Amino acid sequence: xxxxxxxxxxxxxxxxxxxxxxxxxxxxxxxxxxxxxxxxxxxxxxxxxxxxxxxxxxxxxxxxxxxxxxxxxxxxxxxxxxxxxxxxxxxxxxxxxxxxxxxxxxxxxxxxxxxxxxxxxxxxxxxxxxxxxxxxxxxxxxxxxxxxxxxxxxxxxxxxxxxxxxxxxxxxxxxxxxxxxxxxxxxxxxxxxxxxxxxxxxxxxxxxxxxxxxxxxxxxxxxxxxxxxxxxxxxxxxxxxxxxxxxxxxxxxxxxxxxxxxxxxxxxxxxxxxxxxxxxxxxxxxxxxxxxxxxxxxxx
Length: 300
What we know:
By secondary structure, the chain is α+β, with helices and mostly antiparallel strands. The protein folds into 2 domains: 4-111, Gcn5-related N-acetyltransferase (GNAT) (Aminopeptidase), CATH 3.40.630; 143-276, Gcn5-related N-acetyltransferase (GNAT) (Aminopeptidase, 3-Layer(aba) Sandwich), CATH 3.40.630. Helices cover 34% and strands 32% of the residues. Strand 3 (64-74) and strand 4 (77-85) form a beta hairpin. It is globular and about 60 Å long.
């Protein structure tokens, strides 16, 4: 049977997760970072498949999945969440064929902006993305530290944190924040996060009105975080660090874009260190993430 490219199905997603984990670890081990990825339930992939099945594709040969591509769309923004090929079959054009199908997803959606996050040292993939009109924008650094180290000198939370609910008023606030920070409303993704028992979300207030939002996972990871103005980013990140430090996770972590000077400075001051570097790539005119901290390379 020849190699075929087809839309992904729900029953493919456990196998695609195995493929993605193996591909990431092959890459990070070869570049001296060790094994970084571990298997996890493909909950967000399944959510995306149910929401918009045109964004998920597999390459398959003789019943074996050799490649996986997954993209999602919110408003004018198309985002490539994952594109991975079995390490033993790389260099055979599979990645390019999968990318063509996800790019068709972008064209059909009418998205104006395209973006993705990849490893800084993934040179082959960066070349592939540049051939398709996505260019390097800003580095994104994964920071972490022990909770005890982070909490040593944290000030009182600068902003008030109010739990996010699913009310229309809250969703309107979140949409306005996202539009200012990343140029698109992500209401469906906020509803996904609210359904995750391992994730806590808060609106951040200065005075009477919300100026941002943030999420914390039960493992101590902060993100996504977005603010309406660049001048409140540091206070927003400081508040989320304090909330994370008050939890029980042993480690606190976050993805910090290189454009977010105030958050980077605070992370260093609190003893957080860079674990590995990533890169935001995007179509021309997009990617000014001075008001946004992504959750991870798949969720954005």
